[in-house]
Specification:
Strand order of the largest sheet: 6-5-4-7-8-9-10-11-12
Mean pLDDT: 81
Number of strands: 12
Shape: elongated
CATH topology of the largest domain: Rossmann fold
Radius of gyration: 41 Å
Length: 292
């Protein structure tokens, strides 16, 4: 059998002391690193605040931006031409003011998003597209609102687009041929009405006024005075029936006061008093000698 060597107590004691010293050194190192990190963060924060408040950072950025712009100018990438297309009601002066760009500015340094926002604020502009065309051209294409009706509300007139958007209240005399709409909320329902009358738009061109009644349905008054009373529901079907009646019988050219579609599946035609008397007389004489 192998003899077991007795453990030396002094050796164990020395080993424990070394481990304790090593542990203390690691703890001290961690504390020192943590302290240095906190101090570094504080110095960096205070330094950043100082640089920002002193204006040095802004000056550095401005200097860098100036160098970039100078480089673009040296390379010949400057605005020398501005093309504008799509404007009808909007003047070129209004667009130029919104652009706020001078000939000779660096082309690539132009803020396209800011220009787009400024142009689309103009009352007639629906959307705007701005593109750079190297080496020296800025192209601006605009799409304007399409005028569709005059809206009377609170004793004031507005020109509405085909989407029911208020375009302007100026120079409305140039749009007197458009139908006049009225009624609270009529502007919000105009787009739906125009979508309904897409078929037979020639017939809708004969509409002089359109009233949004009770927030539920439309009454249309034609230029010859005939009133078309559209239903609350299935308005498109009623409009289609009116087109058929007009095409087959020229209904709206006759002496009538109104065509009423409010009752589903039923069309009521109201005659003028003179036409009603004439028809009663024709009925009494069996209609001899004259067609209705």
């Amino acid at each position: 059998m192998r003899a077991i060597k007795p453990t030396n107590k002094n050796t164990v004691s020395k080993r424990g002391e070394k481990e304790a010293k090593s542990l203390r050194r690691r703890r001290l190192l961690k504390t020192t690193v943590r302290f240095i990190s906190v101090v570094g963060i504080c110095i960096a924060t205070i330094g950043s605040i100082y640089l920002w408040q002193s204006g040095l950072v802004t000056a550095w950025f401005n200097k860098a931006e100036t160098k970039v712009e100078d480089s673009l100018v040296d390379a010949g990438l400057t605005v020398e031409q501005i093309y504008v297309g799509g404007e009808l009601q909007t003047t070129r002066d209004e667009i130029d003011t919104a652009l706020s760009i001078s000939i000779g500015e660096p082309l690539l340094a132009i803020d396209i998003k800011a220009i787009k926002e400024r142009i689309e604020i103009l009352e007639w502009i629906k959307t705007a597209t701005i593109t750079r065309k190297l080496p020296d051209t800025l192209v601006v294409n605009v799409k304007e609102h399409q005028p569709a009706a005059l809206w009377q509300i609170d004793n004031k007139l507005w020109l509405l687009s085909d989407e029911g958007i208020n375009i302007t209240d100026k120079q409305l005399e140039y749009f007197s041929d458009l139908p006049m709409i009225s009624g609270a909320g009529a502007d919000l329902e105009l787009e739906s009405l125009l979508h309904t009358v897409t078929k037979g738009s020639d017939l809708f061109n004969r509409v002089e006024t359109a009233s949004w009644v009770g927030g539920r349905r439309w009454d249309l008054i034609l230029k010859n005075g005939v009133k078309i009373m559209l239903p609350e529901e299935e308005m498109k079907d009623a409009w289609g029936n009116l087109i058929e009646f007009e095409q087959s019988e020229h209904l709206l050219a006759r002496n009538i006061l109104a065509v009423d579609f409010r009752v589903k599946g039923k069309t009521v035609v109201r005659l003028t008093p003179e036409e009603a008397d004439r028809r009663r007389l024709m009925a009494k004489t069996s209609g001899e000698g004259e067609d209705i």
